[in-house]
Structure formats: C-alpha cells, structure tokens
Write a structure and sequence with these properties.
The complex is a heterodimer of chains A (586) and B (133).
Chain A (H helix, E strand, L loop, with lengths): L2 H8 L19 H25 L29 H5 L22 E6 L4 H13 L4 E4 L3 H4 L23 H7 L10 E3 L5 H15 L8 E3 L3 H8 L6 H18 L3 E2 L2 E3 L1 H5 L4 H20 L5 H4 L4 E6 L3 H22 L11 E6 L12 H14 L4 E3 L12 H16 L14 H23 L3 H6 L2 H18 L28 H16 L2 H16 L5 H9 L4 H12 L9
Parallel strand pairs in A: 1-2, 1-9, 2-3, 3-4, 4-5, 6-7, 7-8, 8-9
Helix pairs in contact in A: 4-6, 7-21, 11-13, 11-16, 13-14, 13-16, 14-15, 20-21, 20-22
Chain B lengths: L7 E5 L8 H12 L3 E4 L6 H10 L4 E6 L4 H14 L6 E6 L3 H9 L4 E3 L5 H11 L3
Parallel strand pairs in B: 1-2, 1-3, 3-4, 4-5
Helix pairs in contact in B: 1-5, 2-3
Classes of the chains: A alpha/beta (586), B alpha/beta (133).
Chain lengths: 586, 133
C-alpha cells in the first residue's frame, strides 16, 4: 500500500472537522461530534456485523507490539480533546510534535549515517572512504569488544575478539590510521562508545589538534550513555556512580570546549534491542535523560548551557504506526520535561534531536533478502517520525557483519525514501490522522506513568539497583518470543511462509584471525618505541586526578598524546573506581 | 514411575559481547519446561564456565555467543571439558555462527548449533532427547 493511500484513509475527513476559533477548547464542534458518534454506532451495529458474518476478521483482538489495543477504526471521538495548537503546534515550535525545524526535509534531509567498523584501522579507514564516496554524509564508528570494554588488543580477555565486531583501537596510533586522509573539519563523526568514551573522544581531539582543526570546529557525537549500559547494552566497566561521573565529565568538558559536539546520545536503541517494547524504550530513555540533566546541573552548569547539545538515539521496529507515534511523542514529552521540570528557556534546550537505527533484532537469518523490505518500512517510519539522522541495517546482519554490497543496499534504501518516494515534500505527513494522534497520546501517557514510577523509586540509579529495568525488559522479550512461537505474531519466513533452502545472494564478510596477530604485533612495537618514562609520569598524574575527583578529560587527552594506551588508562581508572559486577536478572 | 532427577542446565556467555536476550529467553524456556537452570552472566572465561559446570554438576551446557570469538573460545571450553572428564555433559551452542564454522564445532564435540529464529520448543526437545541423566 502506498503512503498516499494511508493518507486517504487516515487524514481528516473535512465534513467532520469544524474548527472553532475562540470559545470552547475542543477542536471538534460538539454537535458534529455527536453526529459522528451516532453514525459510528449505526455503522458498528448494522454494516459491520453483516459484513463480518460473510467475511470474518482474522483475529479476535488486535494490538500493537507494546500492547495498545487497536480498534477497527479511529474517528474524531478518539481524539475528542485534541487541541491543535497545544498538542501539535507548528514545526520548529513547542511542543515540536510536528518536527524540530520549520521546514524539515524540504530544507535539509536527515543525515545518512551508517555504523561501520571491522578488522584493523586500515580496513575501516578504507570502508569510511568508500561510504563517503557513495554519498554518506556522516561517519559512525563501530569499535570491537576489547576496545568497548577498555582492553588493549593484547589483553588476555581480548583473545579471539580483536577486530571481530568492530575496529580495534588501542591507542592514538590506531586512531591516526583510522582517520588517515579524512579531514575532521569536513566530516561529522559518531562514536558508539560508553565506558571508555572519554578516551576515544580524547583521541579524536588529539587528531584534530594534529590536523590543525580547532576544538570548536569538531562535529560529532559520543554515545557516552553509561546508565543504559547497566540494564540494556551491559557493557559496563565501572560501578554506576563513577560511570555517571565520567558521562558528566564529558558533558561538562564539551559544554566548555566543544560547542558543536553532542557529548551524549541518550539511547533507547539498546533498551529496545534487549527486548523492551516501544513504551518502555521511550520511558526508560527519557528517565536516563532526566538523570543526566540532574547530574550536570549538580556540577553548577545552567540548563540552557548544556541541554541544547543533548541528543537521543532510538530504534525503529516493525510496528509501523506505533513507531511513528513513539517518535512524535518522544519529542513532545522531552520538550515538556525540559520546560516544566527543568525550566529551560532556550528553545534549543527543548529540542529532542534524534538518531534512529532500524531494528537489528527484527532481522531474520531465514530468507535474509526479505530483510531489505523490513528495513525499508522501518526507515520510512523513522522519516515519517521526523528523525535527524538514520542508520539502515544491512539485510545480512542476522548472519554476519554486513558485506559491502549489503551496506550499499541499506544506504540506497534511505536514498530512495529521500529522493523517490515524495514523503520529504511536506512535514509530519501523518499529523492529524485520528489513529496516529491517538497512538501518540497513548505513548506519551504510558511513558509518563513509567517515569513517575521511576521517580518514586528514587530515580534511575535506584531502579537499576533493584533490577527494575532488567526485569521489565526480560519479561517483554519473553512475551514477544512466545507470541511468535504461538503464531499470534507472524514472522514471515520464520514461523510462516518458510522455505527449505535459503538464498543468500553474496558471500558473507569474514574477519580473518590474522587481523588479531597483526594488531597485537603493531601494538607491542608501539609500546616499545614510545617514551615509556613520559607514559608512566602521565599515568601517575591520572591516578592522582582521579583520586581528587577532577574532571578527567584534560589529563586523558594529555595521556593519549604520549601514546599511553586505552587499556593502561582504563586500568588506572579501574584501580580507583573498582570494577562493575553484573546484577543477574533472568 | 521413579522420581527422575531434573535435568540441570548451565547457560553460559563466553566472550566479551553482551547480547544476552537469546540466552535469557532460552534459560526461561528450559526452566518453564521443568529443568533446573544456572545462568552464568556475561563475559565468562572458558575456565570460569567449566568450573561452574563442574561445581553445579550439570548435565547440559548451552553456550551463547554473538561476537565472532567462538572459533577461539569454544575449542578451549571443549578441551577443558575433556580434561575434567566431563565427557557425558551435553554441549550445544547458539548465536550468530556462520554455517561453515558449524561443521568444525560439531567435530570438537558440540552436539548442535542453533541460529537465530530457532523456536524454543526445538531446544527443549533437543535437550530432553540428548541429555544424559
């Protein structure tokens, strides 16, 4: 079905809409509304039953993935108290339901940003240059697990993992190779890094210094959302308190020195991928956002100094309209929180700028080419939801890291939406749809109920300690799995429409074990050749400053410039902060 | 009918990756099928996994990994299992594991490798049929 057809079905039917200027708060004339109600009842008691008798509906109950009951039809009755100016407003204006900017995609498309990284820094550098030449507009680095966990490639825990799921970066040397020939004033770079975010950002700053790019020109994002690590992505290095301290150090440092950098990308994506539903994703992400704002305010910064640079990251899952409603509700709810709870005044402090990635966990290993279609619908939902930036998954990702051809199809999917579909010609295309407005309200209400519960528990940190999020997410994941297995939910190619033999049109990407050997050899050589006296001095100083609870960004930049490694720096921090022990909630 | 000892299963996450959604779903499904489940938590070394299996006296070990390190870590785990004389323990694996690696993993004693989309019912049946009690 084309989008235009959806619009025909869903947009206001002018006969029923009678906008009053002044007077009552209701958008709908009460007399007309009663008429709609009467007509609907007539339709439901006469037309529908006689039709159903001959053509029964497929299910007794319809619901979104998050459990909102879906009715057969939505009418003005479902948004009876709808107030256009208050609930939607205009693009670029409070409460931003219709979009962050006045002209949205008519002026500037979203950033097409493909997360990538594998093997050695040289290999990923080549992939970056390829993506830029194919029309990508921003880089996004995937690091390997040792890097993410703060281990050097030669650490025993790194065995078998080097370069497997991302690029290995153990020192400034690797980062120099990664950005060889890529001027930092010409790209924006997103780094999916949390525990060691300070170190990776420091490396980026150091490269900027070398290239002669001033810090105020550096453009990009560090994920740096350590809170969600404890219950969603679970790549934690330090206990919650020092983890939040490090996140806040980066926010504070960037506010003062890197005005174009997004110091944190408050992430629902991992919450969703771990198994939550859309409402939980929305609520838990915003709760984390509240915690970062509170923690930064405690440093003495004013809300309007740092709030404009807070950014967000969401998943786009299969349930098309629920996802669109989620993005719209997210913007509106965050604007209200910033305005009402934190008294922000700068309009940009109320902006929820978001990056969206299509949902990895919806991709199937069975009939993998079908994933192209899943990704297309999910990315369309993100665009109709008004995202600022988008990553489309490659169809072979349930099998391996994506190969170059699959990445190209993923990027082309975005370009087809942008240039062929026509959806970018107007703003918030589904605004005013009875169903989408109803769902948007539902998402906001239900998310707000969760946020109130989390506040009552004493905030995010206490909720983490109680295992609240972990249990909520594990329950939703199990429920979803059961719905698939009982065939309440159809997964094409998995529990229905299966085939004997799958067709994969190209060879999967393999990362060869030599990558690890080469990387380890290079690292050991570098450690021999650097000035080890200087390294020791700076690491001692780092220990000292960590003890004194200073903002650690400046000393970490200094340390990395002596070629002290990621692992060495993390080790110092582990000594002072301690190591996190997982709270296991099955 | 004699009271049969419940099947004891260790669900283990070797490697550095943190994708525990599948492992937790498998743990719950096997528990709901009447088995006793021990879940290790994330990032366990081969030594820690085999030690836990020994101490908990399990009949079955399920290994879950998505990082690509199975080629190095699974053989280590299987070696340690042999060393400890735990030959009667059923070992299966799940995660994102390329087809061409599965043959090698079976050769070293991993009975079956399950990919994404496997119904939990298939796993329950597999464990019930193959676990030695």
């Amino acid at each position: 079905m084309r989008v235009a057809d959806y619009l025909n079905i869903l947009l206001f039917n002018r006969e029923y809409v009678n906008i009053k200027i002044g007077g009552s708060n209701n958008m709908f004339d009460e007399r007309k509304l009663r008429e709609v109600s009467k007509e609907r009842q007539r339709w439901e008691t006469t037309k529908v039953p006689s039709w159903i008798e001959r053509h029964p509906e497929k299910k007794n109950k319809y619901s979104t993935v998050s459990g909102v009951q879906v009715k057969r039809l939505y009418t003005p009755e479902d948004i009876e108290h709808f107030d256009y100016v208050k609930d939607l407003g205009f693009p670029g204006e409070y409460p931003f339901t219709r979009g962050l900017h006045a002209t949205m995609y008519r002026g500037r498309l979203w950033t097409m940003r493909q997360f990538s990284g594998f093997g050695t820094a040289e290999q990923t550098n080549e992939r970056f240059k390829y993506l830029l030449s194919e029309g990508e507009t921003g880089l996004s680095i995937a690091f390997d697990y040792p890097t993410i966990m703060g281990y050097d490639s030669d650490h025993s825990m790194a065995t078998g993992e080097v370069g497997q799921c991302g690029v290995a970066v153990s020192s400034l040397k690797d980062m120099e190779t990664l950005f060889n020939g890529i001027p930092l004033n010409k790209v924006s770079t997103s780094m999916t890094i949390n525990g060691p975010a300070a170190m990776l950002l420091a490396m980026y700053i150091a490269i900027g210094d070398k290239q002669g790019v001033p810090r105020e020109k550096l453009d990009g994002t560090t994920q740096n959302d350590n809170l969600k690590e404890f219950f969603a992505q679970k790549l934690c290095l330090f206990p919650p308190k020092p983890s939040l301290k490090l996140s806040t150090d980066i926010i504070e440092y960037c506010t003062r020195h890197l005005p174009h950098w997004n110091p944190v990308s408050i992430s629902g994506y991992h919450i969703r991928e771990a198994g939550s539903n859309a409402v939980q994703e929305l609520a838990f992400t915003l709760a984390d956002g509240i915690a970062y704002v509170e923690s930064t305010l405690e440093r003495g910064l004013k809300v309007d100094e740092f709030a404009p640079r807070l950014s967000f990251f969401f998943a786009s899952h299969n349930d098309f309209f629920e996802e669109i409603a989620k993005f719209r509700a997210a913007r509106r709810l965050w604007a209200k929180i910033m305005k009402e709870r934190f008294n922000a005044e700068d309009p940009r402090s109320l902006w929820m700028r978001m990056h969206v990635q299509t949902s990895g966990c919806t991709l199937t290993a069975q009939q993998p080419v079908n994933n192209v279609m899943r990704v297309a619908f999910q990315s369309l939902a993100a665009v109709l939801g008004g995202t600022q930036s988008l990553h489309t998954n490659s169809f072979d990702e349930a099998l391996a890291l994506p190969c170059e051809e699959a990445v190209r199809v993923a990027l082309r999917t975005q370009q087809i939406i942008a240039y062929e579909s026509g959806v970018t010609d107007t703003i918030d295309q589904l605004g005013g749809s009875y169903y989408v407005e109803y769902l948007t309200n539902k998402m906001e209400e239900r998310a707000m109920r969760y946020i109130d519960r989390i506040d009552a528990m004493g905030g995010v940190s206490s909720a983490i300690e109680r295992g609240f999020f972990q249990k909520e997410i594990a329950d939703s994941a199990y429920l979803y799995q059961k719905e698939i297995e009982s065939r309440q939910r159809t997964l094409v190619g998995v529990n229905d429409y299966t085939v004997e033999k799958d067709w994969v049109p190209m060879e999967l990407l393999r990362v060869h074990p030599e990558v690890e050997e080469e990387q380890v050899a290079r690292l050991r050589k570098m450690k021999k050749e650097r000035d080890n006296r200087k390294v020791k001095e700076v690491l001692d100083k780092l220990h000292d400053e960590t003890d004194r609870d200073r903002n650690l960004m400046p000393i970490i930049i200094k340390a990395l410039k002596t070629y002290a490694t990621l692992g060495e720096i993390t080790e110092v921090l582990r000594t002072v902060f301690g190591e996190y022990r997982e709270l296991i909630v099955v | 009918m004699t009271a049969e000892r419940k099947i004891r299963v260790l669900i283990a996450k070797p490697g550095l990756d943190s994708h525990d959604r599948g492992a937790k779903i498998v743990a719950r499904a096997l528990r709901d099928a009447g088995m006793e489940i021990i879940y290790t938590g994330l990032r366990q070394t081969p030594e820690q996994i085999v030690e836990t299996a020994l101490q908990e006296d399990v009949n079955v070990i399920g290994l879950s990994i998505l990082s690509g390190a199975h080629k190095v870590l699974f053989p280590k785990i299987m070696e340690l299992i042999k060393e400890k004389g735990m030959d009667d323990v059923l070992v299966f694996a799940g995660g994102i594991i390329p087809q061409e690696d599965i043959r090698d993993l079976k050769r070293i004693g991993i009975k079956e490798v399950f990919g994404p989309g496997t119904p939990t019912g298939t796993l329950v049946e597999f464990v019930q049929e193959n676990a030695k009690r």
